[in-house]
Each structure stands twice: as C-alpha cells, then as structure tokens.
C-alpha cells in the first residue's frame, strides 16, 4: 500500500482533553527490534497490511493486519 514514510502535524490544539499531535504512515521493512524513547503522549499503531512482532517486557505479541497497539506516555517523576 505505502511505498514511503509520511507524517503531518496539527497546527492548532482543538481542546485540552484530546487532540491529534501527529499522524503518519510507514511502509515498514523487516529490521532489528526498535526501542522507543520516553514520550509524553499516547502513540497508536494500526497495521493496514502485513505482520510483525511487538515486544513488551517479557512478552512477544504477533500482530497482523487490522490489529494494533498503544504505547502510553512515559512521564518521569
């Protein structure tokens, strides 16, 4: 479906409860596992085509088309 990477960012914040900060797509190719850096927002991934593995703590999840996952914020105290 996608042959590249693309994103867009919202220029304005519609309200304080919920808004989209960034939206994008990526034609992901097989690669080594990726470690996310701490973020202060929710990150939602949805798979439109293909499959892959999602590692969290000691669990491995095999995800495929029409599945996804959410990475919650990592607020440091």
TrEMBL record:
> Could you tell me the superkingdom of the organism this chain comes from?
Bacteria
- Ranges of residues in domain AraC-type arabinose-binding/dimerisation: 23-73
Q: Does the keyword DNA-binding apply?
A: yes
Q: Which UniProt keywords apply?
A: DNA-binding
- Give the protein name, as stated in the record: AraC family ligand binding domain-containing protein
- Its source organism is Tigheibacillus halophilus
